[in-house]
Fold:
Amino acid sequence: MNCQLCQENLDAYLGGGLPAGMMTQVESHLKTCDSCKRLSEIQLLANRVIRVEKETEVDPFLVTRVLANIERLDAAGFGNAPLGAGILRPALITLSLAAAVLFGIMLGNLSRPAGNAGKIPLELALINDASLESVDILSLE
Amino acid sequence: MNENELIKLIIQGEREKFGIFVEKYQQMVFRTCIGFVHNKDDADDLTQEVFIQAYQSLPEFKMKSAFSTWLYRIAVNASLNKIRKSAGKSFIHRLESFFGSENQMTGQFPAFDTDDPENIIIKQEHSQWIQKALDSLPENQRTAIVLSKYDDLSQKEIAEIMNTTEGAVEALLQRAKKNLREKLSENVRGKNKK
Structure:
């Protein structure tokens, strides 16, 4: 048996899943080949590392933690709300924002002086009241 | 009451019934997650994230596959996302390690039984680069190997989770094992040179 064939069958060999004949061949190769022997040891260790990780127990409070988080999310408006709520909620928020803006504009307009709705001619707008000459001066002429 | 009936009740608002699913599948999801992240704390957080994500996506579950298959898919995707995010942070982590502000070994190893001398040796010498060899595999090979080695799933089950054919899974597993062998051999050669 060569190294390539031995290495290809290492996984099955270590898992005890090789036919008896092949098992003996791998075994005898491992006795004579240092590099394959070392690799088989490393592979055995890799299997142990995986086994140790697999046997690690999950957080015993996971169920409580998950349910608490779900409750918090539901309270915040996420989670399994009815399908319509997914559309209704943002629509309602948008509508109330628009209503608030409109109300603000209307409130602002209340403080503006009523009347004089018509346009003031440009020449009148440019007149500086403070520098107007007295009517008396005009009557003297 | 079967799982689909239970799901309908949860969607209708009986959220506390979701605890039954968490109880039943927590170890399964945790095993998958730890296979990707190799750290108990990260795997615990990830497991919690998976269940919350599953709860939020429950109305989208079509009930065409088993609930466990669907949950595996969420767990695999969440784990891969977590790894991608950590890969982005690894440069900073390396810098921190370089300047000695953080011990590189902290929290990297699984919880070995410290009373067992054999386990101490494994921890000290090998587990880090065995995990590195696993982590260096391409995403699809890594997914196949985690589902096969950590969850002991058949090629048919892996194919269903990965949405591919059994033949493709077999090829993925072959390539993953070959890559792992090569990476471990490199290390053996490196050790022998020393």
